[in-house]
Amino acid sequence: MKRTILKNSHFMYGGVRENVVVEEGRIAEFHDRTAVIDGESFDAVGSLIFPGFIDVHTHGAIGVDVNAASADELMKVAAFLARNGVTAWVPTLVPDSDENYRRVIGEIDRLMEMQEGRPVAQAVGVHYEGVFANEKMCGALRPEYFKKYTGGELAELPRLKSGVHMMTFAPEVEGGIELAAEFVRQGWIASIGHTRADTETLDKAFTAGARHMTHFFNAMTGIHHRDIGVAGWGLKTEPVTFDIIADGVHIHPEMLELVCRAKTPGKVTLISDSVAPAGLGDGEFEAWGEKIVVEGGRTRNERGSIAGSVITMHDAFVRMRSLGFSESEVAQMVSSNPAKLLGLEDSRGSIEAGKRADLVGVSDDGAIKFVMIGGEFVDLG
């Protein structure tokens, strides 16, 4: 039995220093730092340890677009994400042809077989973004691939052999409320986005089972003093959670802090919404059938729209700490909340005995010092 002891462990939820025993990929137990324990040791002194980051919305990185990728290319993305603190992720698809959906789902299935036991970010499902979306709120998505719901379209979408299935949809589309109920019946996570629904429709979607919102503020109607809008509905509807892009481009940093405080960090999930150019710097790239320009960390497609982000979850983590959120609040937003959203909180999202040993050690200035995934250390290069 492989056993690793993380010595001098300093956790984000307090100043206690302990020895963490990791066995067979899981956190086995905690001991006082004076305890003598057999096993391979790693001195974590100088590292503040967080649960591994979980990204529920990423379209790719390092030149790889999820919609166009092979399993081997997705594995390269998983390795890149791991070096940036992500221990679990949900590959995210933009609207596409049914033929390509089938191909990509097959490649994600292969990835999930290949990744087992390897220290790369673990794909835990798939996120279909905007298959059923409002054409007037398409953002960077391709409306020619949007679908209407007449009863059988969800069942026709390719599904993974195992894992989480998430869908971003607009409840005002034809059959949208029935669709929300069908998501629940078939075990999908229903997330409201790319929408301009009125509050009555949003309330019906909520009653049907849609309890989350995709990239808050973006591709939805905002708040006006004479119209609460989709964003205002999300803030006032207490049980609703949302995810948000913390890149400082999609949302001004002051507004980012304001809405996360208003909703409370316990109901906010940070996402990257990264696209293929992430990790490659500025330049011109091809994605989703068009040219995407990256300048100063901002993406722009040929229609002039923001086309996703080029940040990592580590970038989002650093930004939220710079805005004054506490260590425990940031840990909620990057780890425990996404784990709960995905229904994986029994095994991920916090540092507890019995859970996966998915851990990120950071320095006082936020730099990543080590990443452990399933009890194995990531080569940070």
Protein traits:
TIM Barrel; single chain; alpha/beta; globular; eight-stranded mixed β-sheet; 381 residues; nine-stranded parallel β-sheet
Explain what you see:
The chain has 381 residues and is an alpha/beta fold. The protein has a single domain, classed as TIM Barrel, CATH 3.20.20.140. The protein has nine helices and 22 strands. Strands 6, 9, 10, 11, 12, 13, 14, 15 and 16 form a nine-stranded parallel β-sheet that branches. Helix 1 packs across helix 2 and helix 4 (176-186) runs parallel beside helix 5 (199-208). The chain is globular.
Helix content: 25-40%
- Uncertain segments are none
Give the averaged pLDDT, no decimals.
Answer: 93
Number of domains: 1
Question: Which secondary structure elements does this structure contain, and how are they paired or packed?
Answer:
Blueprint: E1 3-11, E2 17-23, E3 26-32, E4 40-43, E5 48-51, E6 53-58, E7 60-61, E8 64-65, H1 71-83, E9 86-93, H2 98-114, E10 122-123, E11 125-132, H3 153-156, E12 164-169, H4 176-186, E13 189-192, H5 199-208, E14 212-213, H6 229-236, E15 241-245, H7 253-263, E16 268-271, E17 283-287, E18 290-295, E19 298-301, H8 313-322, H9 327-341, E20 359-362, E21 368-373, E22 376-377
